[in-house]
Amino acid sequence: MRSTPTDIQILYEDNHLIVVNKRPGDIVQGDKTGDMPLSDVVKEYISVKYHKPGAAFLGVVHRLDRPTSGIVVFARTSKALARLNKMFSERETEKIYWAVVKNNPPKIEDRLVHFLRRNAKQNKSYANEKEVPDSKKAILSYRMIKSLKSYFVLEIELETGRHHQIRSQLAFIGCPIKGDLKYGFDRSNPDGSIHLHARKLKLRHPVTKEILEFTAPPPKDVLWDEMD
Description:
By secondary structure, this protein is an alpha+beta fold. The protein has one domain: Pseudouridine synthase (2-Layer Sandwich), CATH 3.30.2350.10. About 15% of the residues lie in helices and about 35% in strands. The chain has three helices and eleven strands. Strands 1, 2, 3, 4, 5, 6, 7, 8, 9, 10 and 11 form an eleven-stranded mixed beta sheet that branches. The longest helix is centred in the first third of the chain and has 12 residues, at about 40-50. It starts with 8 loop residues before the first strand and ends in a 13-residue tail after the last strand.
């Protein structure tokens, strides 16, 4: 189920930025599918709420993969967009994710360092223990926060922001994310989602410089509901 202007979940908004809890299935920015992106849904929400004639300005700061859920930040002014882009590119933000995985991880907590090589044709990234041509260093830390009946919930902190980084690195250690066929899970989720959720984000406000922290509830789901 994709978002509409009347049902998007706003976590924060002011004159400079708007923070949304993305549903699985939403695309953040338009692509070749031609499906309505979340950015357009948020623009419509702003236009209606603030009675803005014409198209509202909205800048895409970062993206989440279509099957994932969680926090997405949009800029409402060009000044905020430039400053937020710089923050994200220079990793001046703190990002926490939750993932439901198939297997018990090798360690309760660990720091993973891999070199990811992206295959654009497959839209997939491959993790390697050592540097290989055209690879980029990828670093994350995880800890197991809950053991469910048949799954394990990991909390992940990203140190880098690579293509499909969490999906690829967790698959490499034998812990594919539930529903993620592309990275080795044995079956898809009925709605096409994967159990990866951008849970928390901490950043400095692009204008006021205040430290902002956001937390997004995961989608309604039998497994996610056990995290309450």
